[in-house]
Amino acid sequence: MQAAPAAASSPSFYDFDDKLAESGTALTRADAIETLQINVGKLCNQACKHCHVDASPARTEVMTREVAEQIIAAARRGSIPTLDITGGAPELNPSFRYLVTEARALGAHVIVRHNLTVMFEPGQDDLPEFFRASEVEVVSSLPYFLEQQTDAQRGHGVFDKSIGALRRLNAIGYGVEKSGLVLNLVYNPVGAFLPPNQSSIEADFKRELAARHDVSFNRLYTITNMPIKRFLDYLRRTGNEERYMRKLVESFNPGAVESLMCRNLISVDWEGRLYDCDFNQMLELGVATELPRTIAEFDPSKFAGRRVMTGPHCFGCTAGAGSSCGGAVVKT
Question: Which domains occur in the chain, in start order?
Answer without folding.
Answer: 32-241+257-301 (3.20.20.70)
